[in-house]
Amino acid sequence: LLIAGLPVLGKGLTWDSLHLLRPYDSGELLAAWSGPWDPDGIERPSYRLLLPIFFTLLHGVFGDRPSLQRCFVIVLTSLSLLMLVEAARPYVRRWTIPAVGIVLALLSNATPVYVGWLTEAFRPLQLFWFAGCILLLQRGLARRSIPLLSLALLAQAAGLLTREENLPLVLFPVVLCRGRRAWPMAALFLAQVPIYLLLRRAFIEESLPGIADFLRGPPELLLATLKSYPLTGLPILLAIAAGLLLARGRERLPICLALVMVPLACLPGAAMVRIDLVLFPSLFLCLAAAFGLEPLVVSKRIAARAAAFVLLAALALFGIAGGWKRVAQLDDLA
């Protein structure tokens, strides 16, 4: 994150940050509860009532100092990713496995966008809500704690009210709530989806994506996700294939779940396909690759460990060689 952020750390505001990153008055904040979130009417209308609050707090704490705001984005992203590593620990033998997946995800060409384009500070916030929801849900189910489970529901709701890209992520806590005793929690998580869509339909006048958009947009976003790793795409796919072939029984579960989440996380691409939308698809794709490496890493066979080393070396070298192409673009526009 520091490598991606240093070239643009001292640059000014870019693009829509010029009109979004500011303090919002109480009237504008209240209006977001029953209408579009952008009071200027420039951005695409949607039900994102927490975004103006977040931008107001960001500007209120750091003022008109983009460098400090970017440092905060780096800290928030790091914290969110650490939370995600902790959430993945119960499903792997070594905590280094999800950590490798996180590092791979950061090799994406889109990473500098999240640091340099300050409006995109809501991406790590979305990730924070998602990782927090999973951690709270895991501990709540283990301890049968109503307060922790309630906080997990609130974290998921906060993610939805930040950006609609968190809608497909509801599947993750639903899967964790498997079992007879946990089905009420699964139902509550699922219920948030129609409630959010009803609120959005009631307060926002917009043309929703049609069937043709869903047939075109998500595949394009998936392709954009793979292209965001210039040379790393093939080793990632090889690591996933190796894991599916060598893993046994329940060891395949984290690989399969991460793989299922990749196309689901691409569903928001039905509205539009942009480089900043690859965060969650690339994250799940790289986690699937890391989970796929685990059977090779823990294997007693020298050939399997050698293959894991070769794949890891290829992922690292190709990822670094791919470079941060977006840095140059942000530098020019700044």
What does this structure look like?
68% of the residues lie in helices and 0% in strands. The chain is mostly helical and 334 residues long. The longest helix has 23 residues, at 66-88. The radius of gyration is 20 Å and the shape is globular. It starts with a helix and ends with a helix.
Low-confidence stretches: none
Write down the secondary-structure element order: HHHHHHHHHHHHHHHHH
Strand proportion = under 5%
Can you count the beta strands?
A: 0
Radius of gyration using CA atoms only = 20 Å
Structural class: mainly alpha
User: Which term fits the overall shape?
Assistant: globular
Give a quick account of the main beta sheet: strands, pairing sense, barrel closure.
none
Individual helix count = 17
What's the mean pLDDT score? 80
Separation, N- and C-terminal Cα atoms: 19 Å
Helix percentage: 55-70%
Spell out the blueprint of helices and strands.
Blueprint: H1 2-5, H2 17-20, H3 26-31, H4 50-62, H5 66-88, H6 96-106, H7 111-116, H8 122-143, H9 146-162, H10 171-176, H11 183-203, H12 211-227, H13 233-246, H14 252-265, H15 279-297, H16 302-322, H17 325-333
Summarize the structure.
The protein is mostly helical. It has helices at residues 2-5, 17-20, 26-31, 50-62, 66-88, 96-106, 111-116, 122-143, 146-162, 171-176, 183-203, 211-227, 233-246, 252-265, 279-297, 302-322, 325-333.
Features:
single chain
